[in-house]
């Protein structure tokens, strides 16, 4: 009986979380990320990822937020993901996924320099993947050593495994976490169209195997991103 109550409670909160995303008035979903002044200013934003499909598996809420608000989003992918000899295929898949995300294809750049060390995720890189972590350190080094002062850098905050696979339930904890930090340091972005995450990830057909389908379904990164300012 006790287990039944727990299961029903989780189901109710899960449904309530989805309703929060799909049915809440836009004012309740409003974030001040890149829009803290009284007037809207279109910003140029560069999203840096390690592999084709990172943008759809981890950054869909951020991409949805930026494109729906009219910001100029550019995407830089630092490899073609050629570990299995499928680099050309995965590069084409990335362009198709970006089309689903409404990212202009001329604003998508894929690099595959043989001497490039994959040096933005945070320092853990969501899954601990070494390439994800190296991208973080590379961006961080650029910001600290050589970037103009008017460039801001943000990292996708990694979370523990229970939150990571809690699906939309994590929107409550992510929102609570963001409001506890100083204004302008951390932002919680809800994915207003989670279905687009599935459609975009499906364009990565070479990677769209059963366990990634489960990941996109149950990963909190499909439903919410918490961005933290890199200091």
Keywords:
231 residues; alpha/beta; 3-stranded parallel β-sheet; 3-stranded antiparallel β-sheet; 13% strand; globular
Brief description of this entry?
With 231 residues, this protein is of the alpha/beta class. Helix content is 44%, strand content 13%.
Query: In order across it, which strands form the biggest sheet?
Result: 1-2-3
Helix and strand run: HEHHEHEHHEHHEHHE
* Computed Rg: 18 Å
Beta-strand level of the residues, as a percent range?
A: 5-15%
Instruction: Compute the number of strand runs.
Output: 6
Q: Which sheet architecture does the biggest sheet show?
A: 3 strands, parallel
Net shape: globular
- What is the first-to-last residue Cα distance? 49 Å
Structural features, described:
There is one protein chain. The N and C termini lie far apart (49 Å). This protein is globular. Helix 4 runs antiparallel to helix 9 (194-202). Strands 1-2-3 form a three-stranded parallel β-sheet. It has helices at 2-23, 54-58, 60-68, 87-100, 125-128, 130-145, 161-164, 170-179, 194-202, 210-218; strands at 44-49, 72-77, 108-110, 154-156, 186-190, 224-229. Strand 2, helix 4 and strand 3 form a beta-alpha-beta unit. It is built from ten helices and six strands; from the N terminus they run H-E-H-H-E-H-E-H-H-E-H-H-E-H-H-E. It is 44% helix and 13% strand. With 231 residues, it is an alpha/beta fold.
Task: Write the SSE topology.
Elements (H helix, E strand, L loop, with lengths): L1 H22 L20 E6 L4 H5 L1 H9 L3 E6 L9 H14 L7 E3 L14 H4 L1 H16 L8 E3 L4 H4 L5 H10 L6 E5 L3 H9 L7 H9 L5 E6 L2
Parallel strand pairs: 1-2, 2-3
Antiparallel strand pairs: 4-6, 5-6
């Amino acid at each position: 009986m006790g287990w039944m109550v727990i299961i029903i409670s989780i189901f109710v909160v899960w449904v309530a979380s989805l309703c929060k995303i799909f049915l809440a008035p836009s004012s309740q979903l409003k974030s001040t990320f890149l829009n803290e002044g009284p007037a809207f200013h279109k910003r140029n934003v560069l999203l840096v990822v390690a592999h084709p499909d990172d943008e759809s598996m981890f950054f869909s809420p951020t991409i949805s937020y930026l494109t729906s608000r009219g910001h100029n989003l550019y995407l830089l992918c630092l490899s073609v993901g050629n570990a299995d000899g499928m680099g050309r295929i995965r590069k084409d898949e990335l362009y198709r996924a970006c089309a689903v995300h409404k990212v202009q294809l001329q604003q998508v750049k894929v690099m595959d320099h043989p001497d490039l060390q994959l040096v933005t995720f945070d320092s853990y890189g969501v899954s601990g993947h070494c390439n994800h972590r190296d991208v973080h350190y590379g961006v961080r080094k650029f910001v600290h050593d050589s970037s103009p002062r008017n460039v801001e850098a943000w990292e996708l905050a990694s979370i523990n495994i229970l939150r990571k696979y809690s699906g939309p339930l994590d929107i409550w904890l992510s929102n609570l976490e963001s409001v506890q930090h100083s204004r302008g340091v951390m932002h919680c972005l809800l994915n207003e169209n989670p279905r687009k995450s599935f459609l975009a990830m499906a364009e990565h057909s070479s990677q769209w195997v059963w366990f990634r389908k489960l990941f996109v379904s149950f990963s909190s990164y499909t439903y919410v991103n918490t961005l933290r300012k890199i200091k």
